[in-house]
Amino acid sequence: MSGIVAATVAAPSALAGGANVIAVGVLLAEFGMFRQALLRDQVRLYAAQSALISVLAVVVAATRHLPDLYALAALSFGLKTVIVPIVLRRMLRGIGAIGGDPRWNDIAGSHALSVASAVLIAIAVAAFGFFTVAALGLRSPVLPATALSISVAVVLVAFVLMIVRRDVISQAIGFLSLENGVSLTALVVAAGLPLILEIAFLFDLLVAVVVFGLLIRVHHGRAESMSTAELTSLQG
Amino acid sequence: MLLLLTLPLAAALICVTAPLAVAPVVTALSGAASFAFVLVLVPAAAGGDIDYLRILRVDALSVVFMLATGFLYAAVAVYSIGYLSAEGASASSAGRTRRLWAGLNLFAWAMLAAPMMSNLALLWVAIEVTTVISALLVAIENTDGAAEAAWKYVVLASAGLGLALLATIFAYYAGAHVLGQSYDLGFTQLLAVAGRLPRAAVHLMFVLAVLGFGTKMGLVPVHTWLPDAHSEAPTPVSALLSGSLLAVSFYAILRFYQVAEAALGPAFPRNVLLVFGVASLLLSMLYLFGQRDVKRLLAYSSVEHMGILAIGVSFGAPAALAGVLLHVLAHAAAKGNAFMGAGVLVRKLGTKQIPAIRGGLDLLPWSGPLFLLAIFALGAMPPFGLFRSEFEIVAGGLHSGSYAAAAILIIAVTTAFFGLAASVTRMMMLPLPRPRTSVPERVPATAGAPAEGPGGPEPATGTVTSTAAPALTRGEPSAWMVVPVAAGALALLWLGLHPPPVLDELFAHAVALFGHGAS
Predict the structure, then answer these.
(1) Residues B286 and B391 in one domain
(2) Are B279 and B324 in the same domain?
């Protein structure tokens, strides 16, 4: 704990402050996903979260003179903020889940717990991740360690999201935002990761999104709903 | 090597574009050729590492896993000819059959590619590709059960791989401390400087990697997708999933283990693997008793064997490690055989429910005994490869002083064998009740099981009914479904009685990759 206190005593630089604000924004977007009631908004929130991460990549690129990161920021913006949401939305519209039957637009009832309890659990989990990682004493050459702790908190909250929301979209978005959390971690501790590998990761993500979309369609075709609550027949 | 990377891909393309009749031929040829290429690689890799283009790298360890995949790819390709032709070629199923052929090739391609990657990041990418392809293959039957299994699989495996990606990032972070910002996560580089890596980051990396890739490998707290996916997928896919996909994930864990062992010393990574391994072994052992679905039975047996692999590595002795590698090969052959044999039974009787499957030995003159042999092999009966490998693992465990773990291993393996053998001998030996022969696929009442559940009859019920009802006389559904199983049984015998010397050499080289630089 003393390490954390010491870190906050010294006034953070403008860069560190900005980076932390963006990281907190990512975490807040993650919390927002707990209470979104409409499929469309859930996808939008994901796009906004991805955009924040791209902004952070640009900030790091500008201040730390890592030109690769500009390309990465552009790519990740194009893919995660534009293409992935478009793909998801098109697939959802294809099965009438957006703009069609209002029953399928609405995922407000998909909570296993009440929203308040879910958020409380998420806060506890996020705090656990935040302080645990801070205690490990990992230092980053480009960004403040606080951002690392926040990114791990994002990953953990994404897990909680996938657990407590019982609809296929929130679970898919949960996975995608989990990946956003990992991207944030990568920005903090692995900013120099070769561009070619980052591109491979992003391409992989795109393939995963298409597969998620196909399976959502299959699920919708079989179950006539977006809920995963009935997926209980395989046991033992 | 390059051929190995391109061939299955080309085969997949052909399956999509060419007429459907070509697909089986192309797939079988591609499978056989891939296996042949891997065999060619064996002596070369036993001699030393092969680097290619900086991103490809094959050493003794990767060849072991490629052998397992190559063999199963070839076997499954041949098996699928029989499996799919029996389904009939109606217009609606033609597209699905085509997708299944293409998917099989792509799946095998990704699994062959994964062990060839020279760095941790590309390894992760390859394994994620195997996940998405196999998720589609699981869903391909388009039943309620398949949709449910595929969704659980893709969500759980992707979340697990998210953790594995985090592990990869931390591996980069650890490496960047020593090697500077611009290195590309190659494991030879990482291993060379392992002694100087920051310890906290390596601890975090290893645990995340075991948890993440362990999800795909089916280690116990995170195995829950596995029985669903294995039981709902088409049989050829189940065989590949179990024999080869789990092994490839294990390969990824081994790579992280190498780094962690070199950086932290052996105690910590071994204890982590021991805990996961023992948990997998004990839990799956219990699930083997009273299991009602034959494919779920085999799936839990996979969890058990993955547990054995993890325990074997945790022993750390060279004999145990060599045993682990042999176990990977033998398990691929045996589990592939068992799934393929079970597939024939299911096809013949039109149900997956164990209480409803009777008289296997009477009905299937070849597949019946072969299936029984595969089960005995899985239970590590003496003449087969798994006996030799488990013997080596236990001997290695005793040698390194892990008496308690070795004892647990022996007891659990024996118990699991009884669980497996009890169900299977009942399926094979007990005579088929007479009155039911006319309507074989309606046996739910006595079973008391959720036989009407969506997990019900395996592929295309319609065709099964039409072929099974008159065919309940003695006879095989298709010779194509016997040949690969027989080949697998021969391979098992060969591995058990007298493994070829080049394999010993290969294992020796692979084992030498571990355990150095324990600081």
Answers:
(1) yes
(2) yes
